[in-house]
DNA sequence: TATTTGTACGCAAACGTTTGCGGTAACGTT
DNA sequence: AACGTTACCGCAAACGTTTGCGTACAAATA
């Protein structure tokens, strides 16, 4: 447990130079001659000098730390985004602090505050669907760059990196229409969920543009979508007189719940009812029949979020306010299309 | 982008007190009268004072940051551990920096070094299975407390938090024996994988204690276990003359690959061949038949790792060197036991 | 030769916090 | 009244780094 940290002072003493010269030599300052630069850098390497990040961050109000807040790290798609974030950040010399909001609004703002305490250079956030008011979040923007990803909000003026959810959902529904489905149900979340609302918008537009009537009875909203909710809502959908011939579940896990209960009732998939999910989670290839779904480029989303973040960190004057849309990719599998 | 940070100095000026008094008042120092304490604390709350962690950490060589290194954040079980770590850490006032080693030994030691640069108070690590030499890791221990979790090593003298993998595997094999299986294959990883070796040890002990001969031909090792490898090795196992009547796959995803190829060959599960996995991943309940497996308490593992870490941080004299074993839990499902 | 320019380096302040030490006043004790 | 004790509080240093400014010397210019 020894702490034999080599500081600038130690290097200075060793070389009979001043601390400032050492500092400048290591930072490649033009005022320093090449000969001393190399001399200093060699000794620094030899003595395994590592700058004290805290002194540095303390001095120049820069920490090279990016804060990340996500609702649930356990969620597979989220974890792929995080992978992209970690990768890109470490490539650019940044560290990442991750916090979970657990879909708890109070905890979320608390997280934001402690992030500020830690003087993070920027905050990447996927806002919880339980977020009702954005005042606390808006206050953050005054202090530090903020970029939203995956779960965004038009109430917050900042850059956002998202999937083209509306269009992807549109493509999914159009695919269902193309295979002859005419009565397409949707299982979605309530209106506070960004992802759900965007996908729902794509659903509505696809139906309208293909002149398919919209029936409120097969538009199902739940507060907390899940596999279990997928099961329950399928039971509900099967109980109405005019059953759907396709179900778009806003989420892969819900779609899997749908498949499981349809199988329980021996309903043929996709002939009687086709199913489509969203996310291309691992499970979607394990369930039988394999689930048609939309693949989301998680790692790429994380990486681009970090890129734009560093952009904003290094140019603090122009705060970005653009929305970057990454394309989702429809993956057709057995739950909508049976290879003959 | 305004930085109107309220510092101790500002509070001091406002109240006509010295900076030291403010500092002590906020830290509940006995030298300060109750009246000024409340006065200071009220103003601090009103002016939304947040201590500059970098000044603090800089001053007292304590960062309240715990570094975490995992092979792959995307791995479900790993993400549950991380959830536990984040939870417990934030409860105790610590922040967490996460890095991925991506099963790359060079990157792993690099991560360790940058963690040290950031002056983390301690490092939690799940060592990559590609780790061949532990010299770099041993050097870390001199500087900062280290605790290993999930993937451990007896070559590193530090506290370790693991699952009772050997015993859990033993229980799994015993369960197979109890349902009448006599020729039990195992699909495992090479000898550098901690988890694999422990589970293999349990496998061997169970067979020995039940007087079942050990046959090298049905002991299969692969370098990088996965669903695909599960499939390929099942093909291999089915090609030998004396087929196994049960397969223990070291991993749920491999076990799922086993199930999928057995189904392809119309082999009855569990009557002809029973299957058992390890981890109780989400997938294990989605595959049909549902997979018998061992549930690992991921969140609890993360939380206890953090607890012991904080223990070591706050008592730097007694470096821990104990191994904490958390109990895995055999979950019996259809892949080994058909309810009649 | 006198003046300017440029090069290479040092001095010292500053960042916000903690903390050992010293000091003052009020109080209690003989 | 003199002394010791206690309760509060301020001074100033320290942590390691960066950086504006000053300065010494050499080279270039007039």
Automatic annotation (TrEMBL), chains A, B:
Q: Write one Pfam family the protein is assigned to.
A: Peripla_BP_3
Fetch the SMART domains from UniProt. Answer: HTH_LACI (SM00354)
**At the top level of its lineage, which domain of life is listed?**
Bacteria
What positions does the domain HTH lacI-type occupy? 6-60
CDD domains from the entry? HTH_LacI (cd01392), PBP1_LacI_sugar_binding-like (cd06267)
List, in alphabetical order, the Gene Ontology terms for molecular function in this entry: DNA-binding transcription factor activity; transcription cis-regulatory region binding
Q: Which UniProt keywords apply?
A: DNA-binding, Transcription, Transcription regulation
- PANTHER family reported for this sequence: HTH-TYPE TRANSCRIPTIONAL REGULATOR GALS, LACI-RELATED TRANSCRIPTIONAL REPRESSOR
The protein, known as: LacI family transcriptional regulator
What organism is this sequence from?
Seonamhaeicola maritimus
């Amino acid at each position: 447990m020894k702490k034999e940290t080599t500081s600038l002072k130690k290097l200075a003493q060793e070389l009979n130079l001043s601390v400032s010269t050492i500092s400048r030599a290591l930072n490649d300052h033009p005022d320093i001659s090449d000969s001393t630069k190399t001399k200093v850098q060699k000794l620094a390497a030899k003595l395994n000098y590592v700058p004290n990040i805290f002194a540095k961050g303390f001095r120049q109000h820069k920490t090279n730390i990016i804060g990340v807040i996500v609702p649930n790290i356990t969620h597979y798609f989220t974890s792929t985004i995080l992978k992209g974030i970690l990768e890109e950040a470490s490539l650019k010399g940044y560290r990442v602090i991750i916090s979970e909001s657990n879909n708890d609004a109070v905890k979320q703002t608390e997280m934001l505050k402690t992030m500020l305490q830690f003087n993070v250079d920027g905050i990447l956030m996927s806002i919880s669907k339980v977020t009702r008011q954005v005042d606390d979040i808006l206050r953050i923007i005054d202090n530090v760059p903020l970029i939203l990803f995956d779960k965004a909000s038009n109430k917050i003026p900042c850059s956002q990196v998202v999937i083209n959810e509306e269009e992807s959902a549109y493509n999914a529904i159009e695919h269902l229409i193309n295979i002859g489905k005419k009565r397409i149900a949707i299982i979605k979340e309530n209106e506070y969920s960004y992802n759900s609302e965007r996908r729902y918008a794509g659903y509505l537009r696809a139906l309208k543009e293909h002149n398919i009537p919209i029936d409120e009875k097969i538009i199902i909203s739940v507060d907390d979508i899940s596999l279990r909710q997928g099961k329950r809502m399928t039971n509900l959908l099967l109980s109405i007189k005019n059953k759907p011939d396709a179900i778009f579940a806003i989420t892969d896990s819900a779609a899997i719940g749908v498949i499981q209960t349809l199988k329980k009732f021996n309903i043929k998939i996709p002939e009687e009812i086709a199913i489509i999910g969203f996310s291309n989670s691992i499970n979607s290839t394990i369930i039988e029949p394999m689930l048609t779904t939309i693949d989301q480029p998680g790692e790429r989303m994380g990486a681009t979020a970090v890129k734009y973040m560093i952009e904003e960190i290094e140019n603090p004057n122009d705060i970005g306010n653009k929305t970057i849309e990454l394309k989702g990719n429809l993956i057709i599998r057995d739950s909508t299309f049976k290879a003959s």
